[in-house]
Specification:
105 residues, rod-shaped, single chain
Length: 105
């Protein structure tokens, strides 16, 4: 009787360990998926910033060549948006670092 009880308890511990391991793996997979999504978002935003800065530079050149204040205003607007996006990239980078830290722990 004691042997059966001991075996059942050992089996129960084994099942609990397996369940805990599956839960950890599931959480790790979810964090990795989130990390991939955030990294993709960061890459897209960096491309947007580059594009905005290129447009702004072209508008600055146009404003300089044609003495156009409108082009200067548009270029400043592009620069402002690019600056905001760079700030978002910084926050995304910190979020990525937090996720990496949580995955490695």
């Amino acid at each position: 009787m004691f042997a059966a009880s001991s075996s059942r308890q050992a089996y129960r511990q084994y099942l609990d360990q397996q369940q805990e391991e599956r839960k950890r793996e599931s959480q790790k997979r979810k964090l990795e998926e989130d990390l991939n999504v955030i990294s993709t978002l960061k890459a897209k935003m960096q491309k947007e910033v580059e594009c905005l800065e290129q447009k702004a530079e072209k508008l600055y050149e146009k404003a300089e060549a044609k003495q156009s204040h409108q082009s200067l205003v548009e270029a400043n607007a592009f620069r402002r948006v690019a600056k905001e996006k760079r700030e978002e990239i910084v926050s995304i980078t910190s979020e990525i670092e937090e996720k990496v830290a949580s995955v490695s722990n």
